[in-house]
User: What shape does this take?
Amino acid sequence: MSGLSGTPRAVFVDPSGRRGRTVRRVMWTLGLLVGLYCALVVVALVLPVGMSRLAVPGLGPLLPGPVAPALADPGSDSAPLAPLTTPSATPSTTPSTTPAARVSPTQATVPAATTEPAPAVVEVPVATPTPTAAPGRSAEAPGQSADAPGNDPTAKPVPASTHAAVPTPRPTKG
Amino acid sequence: MVGMAAVPTRRRGAHVEYVARRPALAHWFLLVAVLSALLLALGLQTLSSGVGGAGTVEPRERVAADAPTGGPVLVQDRGRLVGVPMQDRTVALTFDDGPDARWTPQVLEVLAREDVPATFFVVGARAVEDPALVREVLADGHEIGEHTWSHADLSAVPGWRRNLELSLGQLGLAGSTGLSTSLLRPPYSSSPGTLDAAELSAATSATDAGYLVVLADRDTKDWSSPGVEQIVANGGPTGTDGHIVLLHDGGGDRSETIAALPALIESYRAAGYRFTTVSEGIGLTGGASRPAAAVPAFQGHVLEFAVHASSWLVTAVSWAVLGFGLLSLLRTVLVVALAPHHVRVSARRVAGEPWLPPVSVLVPAYNEAVGIERAVRSLVAGDHPDLEVVVIDDGSTDGTADVVERLGLPGVRLVRQANGGKAAALRTGTRVASHDVLVMLDGDTVFEPDTIRLLIQPLRDPEVGAVSGNTKVGNRRGLLGRWQHLEYVSGFNLDRRLQDLWGCITTVPGAAGAFRRQAVEAAGGLSSETLAEDTDITMGVLRAGYRVVHEERARAWTEAPSSVNDLWRQRYRWSYGTMQCLWKHRHAVLDRGGSGRRLGLIGIPYMLLFQVLLPLLAPAIDLFALYGLFTGNAQSVLTIWLAFALLQTAVTAYALHLDGERLRPLWSLPLQQVFYRQLIYLVVIQSIASAVAGARLPWHKLHRSGDVVVPA
Assistant: This one.
């Protein structure tokens, strides 16, 4: 074969072409695997993570007594239930120092949560441990799926997985 | 490194070149995939490298007026941030910036000894690096919170980065512990009262996402190493209020923290405090973490793997780049330092009366009608007295043989053969040549009058088997011509001088070389086994025990490819041929002869490093440089690039000076970096792929214009 480097003895040359096909297949496969890996990592990076929107079950009660000034906000659509002072008005308040101010629904919300000393106090004028009261500090809370048992009234639908894996006892629906 | 081009130690093309066949794309696909992975790895490293030192900020000038005051844990309540306090007489020790392989275990040990629970705010990027340690923290009964992915200042980064920091921080925990946490401590935070407007807004958006933002009310400032006593004083109890104490288990030397910890714990015990985790302290009985769902957990695992793989990959490539950078630098230093020595050595070889044996000049020609007349005339016009020119027409179809015949020059013989390739033509020429000193050149090479005489002088030493001439680019118009000119000059005149001194010149260029007939025969003659018959025969001569030297005064003017296409084809053949030779002569290191072993120990590894491996790494080097350029490292990238460009320019200027060339074309040198260099390394990658695949390269004739200009 004149004009071709491919004399039978030419270094590297595989006249049958079988090696070439194998090598090409291996390269395509490797490239594909590496590409898939890249795609997987990029997806893992940018796929929004649904945070476990923690039901801070006792958040209401956790807040310093005069919590949630917003609740008093007439514009608010939530049931006005708490004794209202702005937090800043009582900066030093801690649950125990202002027992009267505490929103008691804790008991309703997290029955078990009563490890803390304060919650026993129930002399809250408005707040009764009614179902709506507790979680309700956001009226729409019950409407949210159990996945997002947040007491965060502004709770947006949480993308993807939010794990309600530990179901927080919720007093909704009495 | 940016300044290093692939080694250009090569010679003129042969007759025939390959034609592009069915394009094989597999290796380009693989290259792109690998570069993407590398880019991703770099990006991931950047994303994780925000991991800064520990620290809280001093209260700023303008503290946000509406900072919540109720307590150190901020939650959102109907669109407003509300501070939740710790219960009275409870204290939560919190440790930021871990896990840290050195300090976290020590903290755990103290906590275990004191039987005190704590809360660890973990940096995601560190968690995935040492997931076992995070699991250990959990196993010890402590609580885990998020401290972002890379310890980024959430109030200072753009919104997308803030979201990414939070979500990747979650993934880091999901991957290492399978948990999702609602506790977030923003890096550089301290107490609610110190929040400025930007931090407040960052905290608000975190609470929007559902986080409890855990600040502290007792900032020990242990990150500043204020002394053990100061840490205890800063962090100790006041009154009966519940406290969250800010400490660090990572991000720097934490020995003071560990030393202060027992005393700090004791001070709270003495005041009647109970130690809790943050979530328990604010009354969250279920804790603040939940098992992560399957998808984020999987994402976390992917991330964990990617971080490890990326760090491995970037480290490996960085070391390779550094290694090659140092090798290239070393080579440059050697080349420049030894060049003057070579000038003396080579002058000594040809000192004294000229040696004027009868010489046979072999001119293999395949379709060289354009340049053959000029080449042959330049040969017979030479000043060597006893000369036989043998033109071997390798089955040309353009009447090359007729052109030669018509010349009717005395002393010029014409041999016609069926097309068989350059090596076959040279074999024919060797057979029919009348003399024992053989000069071989390409059909389009133009010799100067004294070229042949100068070229054969070193052969007077019977140990010398072959002499390499100095091939120069005759067509230097345009960037491509200038670039190749510079490449030939610094490649030939410097690199080959160095190889000469080492006694292992690996290529006597096909465009200009002189051989001793016995040496060629001892090497087994010219072979068609490789596409680089010149490198092949040179290595064969070395292995036959002869020395090969460089005679830079013997100049041969050659026509360099003038189109990118032709250049690509030429380099493809060179590169493929070189690798064939490296493989064919791989056992040289076992040779008994001195020059064969030198070839195996020095010449072949040298070629392998600079002509095969370096081009293979070059795309990664470019990617590193580009990445640095566009991600804020522009200054250091440009500095390195400039340093190498200057070095390269200086070396090339020196080479031009040694060769008696003008310095003017130097201006085109920096431009090599943006096109020529890439072309040179990509063609090497292509030929490596072909070699591995065992591809057969059909030959193809280069276009000849015959516009070689020999300066008077």
Summary: Residues 48-174 of chain A form one domain. Chain A is about 25% helix and 0% strand. Chain A touches chain B through 94 residues (CB under 8 Å). Confidence is low (pLDDT under 50) at residues 1-8, 61-174 of chain A.
